[in-house]
Write a structure and sequence with these properties.
Chain A: InterPro entries: bHLH_AtIBH1-like (IPR044549), bHLH_dom (IPR011598), HLH_DNA-bd_sf (IPR036638), IBH1-like (IPR044660), IBH1_N (IPR059002). Chain A: Pfam families: IBH1_N. Chain A: It is found in: Nucleus. Chain A: Keywords: Nucleus, Transcription, Transcription regulation. The complex is a heterodimer of chains A (about 190) and B (about 90). With about 190 residues, chain A is mainly α. Chain A is built from 7 helices and no strands. The two termini of chain A are about 35 Å apart. The termini of chain B are far apart. With about 90 residues, chain B is mainly alpha-helical. Helices cover about 75% and strands about 0% of the residues of chain B. Chain B is elongated and about 55 Å long. Chain B has one domain. Chain B has 5 helices and no strands. Classes of the chains: A mainly alpha (about 190), B mainly alpha (about 90). Chains A and B meet through helix 3, helix 4, helix 6 and helix 7 of A and helix 1, helix 2, helix 3, helix 4 and helix 5 of B.
């Protein structure tokens, strides 16, 4: 029976190499079963804390409890990244800022093209590309001011991490669904 | 404007080092991650398209996480604590 501790040691054995290889290792890292298990155990811990301490943060899209879960899942994801990427560090610092300042979320409308008539640093890029890059930078946490190659590197890792987050949460939901139906069957049966 | 200040604080190396070839190479690497564009050949898909698909994909992933969070919050509210945790621990150890 695999011990969670040995799985952690296995994932730490991957030594960082050159930048490109490191990026590859980072992206494929999220797809390994061991990373998913690490993340799911962190997620369960975070969810347990959410249950005991219900927050009352109002949000337009999600009810309070769901938002707390989403925040806990993002935090757990950022922890699992072990601080190697900018987006994970940004998530962890942003949570603190949001609690102190109650910052409003930026709208997703592309409104930066009017401010930037192509006189930016990268004169080689077309305006359409520039717009898309700016939008992408807004979506990955903490990566608004990054140069293009760094932004793509962060995006690569971020997408892989998000996919793992979705897989893990879906698996957890399935697990809870099946276990709750099972327990309902056993409790409803006459003893 | 704050955007001007942020632009000036951007790394100066990005002004000189990025060539068009580099951009297309990075964009093609990104294209391989996207589930929708993996089948198409790279010369049929423009860089702007790849970036837009990337943004759409990230948005859809965020949406999935939010939906799963809602579902999990409902599940956690209704299920029995001990049986749920036992099931989770069992699955983590296997």
């Amino acid at each position: 029976m695999p011990n969670p501790n040995t799985l952690t040691i296995d994932s730490k054995r991957k030594k960082p190499r050159k930048l490109e290889n490191h990026t590859q290792k980072q992206s494929t890292r999220w797809r390994t079963a061991s990373e998913q298990q690490i993340y799911s155990s962190k997620l369960v811990d975070a969810l347990r804390q959410v249950r005991s301490n219900p927050t009352s943060t109002p949000d337009v899209r999600l009810p309070a409890s769901a938002r707390a879960i989403r925040d806990a899942a993002d935090r757990a994801l950022a922890f699992t990244a072990k601080g190697r990427t900018r987006w994970s560090r940004a998530i962890l610092t942003n949570r603190l800022k949001l609690r102190l300042l109650k910052k409003k979320k930026k709208p997703r409308i592309i409104n930066c093209s009017t401010k930037k008539p192509g006189t930016g640093c990268n004169r080689l890029k077309l305006p359409a590309l520039q717009r898309r890059v700016r939008v992408l930078g807004n979506m990955v946490p903490g990566c608004r001011k990054l140069s293009f190659p760094l932004l793509l590197e962060e995006t690569t890792d971020y997408i892989a991490a998000l996919e793992m987050q979705v897989r893990t949460m879906a698996a957890l939901a399935e697990l809870l669904t099946s276990s709750s139906s099972a327990s309902r069957l056993t409790t409803s049966m006459p003893g | 404007m704050s955007t001007r200040r942020s632009r000036s604080s951007q790394s100066g190396s990005s002004r000189n080092n990025i060539s068009d070839d580099q951009i297309s190479e990075l964009v093609s690497k990104l294209q391989q991650l996207l589930p929708e564009l993996q089948n198409r050949r790279s010369n049929k898909v423009s860089s702007a398209m790849v970036l837009q698909e990337t943004c759409n994909y990230i948005r859809s992933l965020h949406r999935e996480v939010e939906d799963l969070s809602e579902r999990l919050s409902e599940l956690l509210a209704t299920t029995d604590t001990t049986s749920a945790q036992a099931a989770i621990i069992r699955s983590l150890l296997m």
